[in-house]
Write a structure and sequence with these properties.
Blueprint: E1 6-12, H1 19-27, E2 34-40, H2 47-52, E3 62-66, H3 75-84, E4 89-92, E5 98-99, H4 103-114, E6 118-121, H5 129-133, H6 135-139, E7 158-160, H7 164-172, E8 183-186, H8 187-192, H9 203-214, E9 218-221, E10 226-227, H10 242-265, H11 269-272, H12 274-291, H13 293-298, H14 301-311, H15 318-362
Parallel strand pairs: 1-2, 1-4, 2-3, 6-9
Antiparallel strand pairs: 4-8, 5-10, 6-8, 7-9
Helix pairs in contact: 7-9, 7-12, 10-12, 10-14, 14-15
Length: about 375
């Protein structure tokens, strides 16, 4: 069978409201040399039924697979999709999102013209569900980058210099979005470097970290091809209790550190540059702590420290526990400092508002 130019991998779980829009956006592509692999993570709604209704529309290019049990995330379904895929390049799309009609045409053309391992878009669209459903509103959407806003805008395709130290320092400045949904990745590169996703929250952040350390030819582009659609019932918008937050994100920390450590052990470069290892460790840890920052404002330090110790028992993880406890203490201090500055700023604003009212009364 002819090898498709692009394999599209979609991890699916209970997305019956959205998966149709996602598949429609793929069908509408101006570039049609692709296959689609949907990996169902044991959905309990009509998601799979809806996907099956699209099989004839894709003319044999749509494959449906299933995990043995629900994994609770996108990582393991994506890994299964990688194993099944045959494409020259891989595209990862979430089932509640969509892509622009020329997405594959633009990104595959860039990948071939520049002969790269990774094509990575700098920005994406971030429409509400209402904006997505109304074509007139969709046309007026502006590209968005939640890390840099408008501070760094590429004027054209730009290579990341093949220097691991410089790349890590660049990544640490938060100039590069880490979502794999904004990338087109050479499959051979993924297989050669044995890159896979972890089964924990923010798995794509670590996957992208490893890519940046491995890829000889890594291209950043200003193209905007992805619709990251806001929805109220997404996993990131769910309200969790303090203990649930700690379990989710500290659990991700522990498994994420193990994932990174395994990667570093396979690359001799990091034996000589322990400092760079800890830049990436710290980057990931800060990302997890930022996720439950509100909990630090509402809960006592003692109760949170107890949660941390429960999730990371001492013993063989003693060093990891000490590292995370130190990060937690530093994060707590940073929040308190920010709160202090906020209170000072608010007090000054109140003073100015009172002064304005006084002057108006005198008039």
């Amino acid at each position: 069978m002819k090898v498709p130019a692009v394999s599209v991998i979609i991890p699916l779980y209970n997305a019956e409201k959205y998966i149709g829009d996602c598949l429609d956006s793929i069908l509408a592509q101006t570039f049609q040399n692709f296959e689609v692999i949907v990996v169902d993570d044991c959905s309990t709604d009509n998601s799979v039924k809806i996907v099956k209704s699209y099989e004839s529309k894709f003319g044999g290019r749509l494959k449906i697979s299933k995990t043995k049990k629900n994994s609770g995330g996108a990582g393991l379904p994506r890994n299964k999709g990688i194993e099944i895929s045959r494409g020259e390049y891989l595209s990862f799309i979430d089932p509640d999102d969509a892509i622009t009609p020329t997405a594959f045409e633009e990104l595959y053309s860039l990948a071939k013209n520049f002969n790269v391992d990774v094509v990575h878009c700098e920005k994406h669209y971030y429409p509400t569900r209402e904006e997505w459903q109304q074509p007139k509103l969709r046309k007026n959407l502006k590209p968005y980058n939640y890390l840099t806003k408008e501070h760094r805008v590429l004027s054209g395709p730009t290579f990341l210099i093949y220097d691991i130290e410089k790349r890590i320092l660049e990544f640490n400045k938060r100039w590069i979005l880490w979502s794999v949904c904004l990338q087109l990745i050479r499959r051979e590169f993924i297989m050669k470097n044995k890159l896979r996703f972890g089964n924990f929250y923010s798995e794509d952040m670590l996957f992208t970290m490893c890519e940046i350390c491995c890829a000889e030819r890594y291209l950043l582009v200003p193209n905007v091809t992805y619709y990251y659609i806001k929805r109220e019932d997404s996993a990131t918008n769910k309200e969790l209790q303090a203990e649930q937050y700690v379990k989710q994100y500290v659990g991700a920390l522990v498994r994420g550190f193990e994932y990174l450590d395994k990667f570093f052990n396979c690359h001799a470069f990091f034996n000589q540059r322990i400092d760079l290892k800890y830049i990436l460790f710290d980057f990931f840890a800060q990302g997890m702590f930022n996720r439950f920052g509100d909990i630090y404002k509402k809960s006592s330090a003692h109760s949170l420290d107890q949660f941390l110790r429960q999730e990371i028992p001492s013993g063989k993880n003693a060093a990891l526990l000490a590292f995370i406890m130190n990060l937690a203490a530093l994060y707590r201090l940073r929040i308190r400092r920010n709160q202090k500055y906020f209170k000072q700023a608010q007090a000054r604003i109140n003073e100015l508002e009172n002064e304005i009212r006084r002057l108006k009364n005198e008039e």
